[in-house]
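Notes from the pairing session

We agreed to fold both candidates in a single pass and log them together. This is the raw record for the first candidate, unedited. Please don't reformat it; downstream parsing expects exactly this layout.

Candidate A
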Amino acid sequence: MLYKNIFILILLSLISFSCSSENNPVANSGKNTDIYPLQVGNKWKYLIINYDSNSNPTDSAYANYEIRNYYEYKGAKWFEMGTFNLFSHQSDGIWHMYVQQPEEVEPALIYKYPTYDGDTYFNYKVISMHKIVRIGTKYYITIQYRLNIFQGPFEYDDYYLCRGIGLVESRRVKKNSKGKDYVYYKKILLNYTIN
């Protein structure tokens, strides 16, 4: 009887977690399961907030990203998003190229997928495959990637990607004068259009 009650409790918990409500909707990634959907016409709008070392917001701005073009390079499609930024969906994940000068093209794997908790590659580590990120009234089930930065006061960047949507949040972390980590910069998804 005890096992039956525990099973019912777990089942009810799973049902309530997976269902959305007006108070706590779970963001649905739709039919697309790409970790970062790359297609001409896809758009994302973000709120960017900077913070001081006491975690007080200092300023904010909006940023819009839209995929307007794609290029063929070495047999792969590279989608242009923003100035000089190209992204490509490869068999091992999402690759990025910063193309300001043609001779400086060096693609890099930024979001390995498929992946698993604790996976490491280059200066990246997968922190969690199921990190819940809340933005306003929506909850997103994301993969949390961490890029370790070895420059000056910066410690790391965290990127939270939801399948079928892409980047829903990113954070840059620094150390304050007391050696404590604090969020210096945050980019938060406001809305998106995925074709």
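Candidate B (folded immediately after A)
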Amino acid sequence: MAVSPPIGMEGSHAAAMRSSYAFVIGGGDSVVEIHHRESGLSYCLVRSSNRTDLSLVSVRGESVCWLHRKQRFPRPQFDVGISQEPFGSISCIDLVRSRYKMTLGEHGAWILQMPLFRVDFFAASPTAGTAKIRVRRENQWELLFDSDSVSPVVLGALATIFRARWTST
């Protein structure tokens, strides 16, 4: 089922985008809900009891990966892992918190640019493709990827960054 591009993402570049996701930041146990527009597949980024760990779980309740906050100030840093083994990291690479680097092992290395006072920005990986991102509302984000399949680990890492930026942690 084809989905029309979000407002402001029309044109030839949007036509090349293949996968569309909606991220909704909320409260309670489910911190970020992630929905694939075409298939309805969903994930939730949930908070653990110690408040520094997050887990990405599928709609069936299966754990996909965990994310542990190592540092909050001045630049947020997170470890990413599966089971007990860390395999990647997320690091803010400037003091304004507008650029992040995600190193996710087999899921690629990504740079996320989030300019201040803008609603459109992007993420890029030399091996995994690009994503065009739009802030729909204060707590809602629209993502368009140029590949048909996007790793849930990449989605969880992006959700962690969006949440950190939204809550200014």
